[in-house]
């Protein structure tokens, strides 16, 4: 997704500020400041539902703050490396403050296996109860 730019050709910092003004989205940026993550890893680190994380990630993408890459079936999210200096400075300060205010997010992220969703999907399939079909 392209960065939102104003009519003067600069990034629209109002959109950036609105996107980062929500505590959940700020926490998502905080964990993305550690490494590229899929939604399942963000979900585990923040103890939120997958739907909630996906909705907030969409807002950050629409604001032009995140970039995506594919790893097999999974989409990894990272903070854009090509943000303008004023946006990058703002995001860097936010990451520092969020990681200080919510150290448990980083702790849970450290305790979460990389590509958690791969592990979860394998475990889910392996432990799903089988339904017995009986002929009547």
Largest sheet: 2 strands, antiparallel
Q: How many β-strands, per DSSP?
A: 2
Round the Cα radius of gyration to an integer and report it: 18 Å
CATH C-level class: Mainly Alpha
- In CATH terms, what is the architecture? Orthogonal Bundle
Mean pLDDT: 83
Report low-confidence residues grouped into runs of 5 or more: 122-136
Which sequence of strands runs across the widest sheet? Answer: 1-2
What class, by secondary structure content? mainly alpha
How much strand?
5-15%
Shape: globular
> What is the number of helical segments per DSSP (H or I, 4+ residues)?
7
End-to-end C-alpha gap = 55 Å
**Portion of residues within helices:** 55-70%
Fold-level CATH name: Arc Repressor Mutant, subunit A
Return the domain count: 1
Note the run of SSEs as H and E: HHHHEEHHH
Which superfamily, in CATH terms, is the homologous superfamily?
Winged helix-like DNA-binding domain superfamily/Winged helix DNA-binding domain
Pfam families: HTH_5 (PF01022)
GO molecular function: DNA binding; DNA-binding transcription factor activity
Protein name: ArsR family transcriptional regulator
Domain HTH arsR-type: 5-99
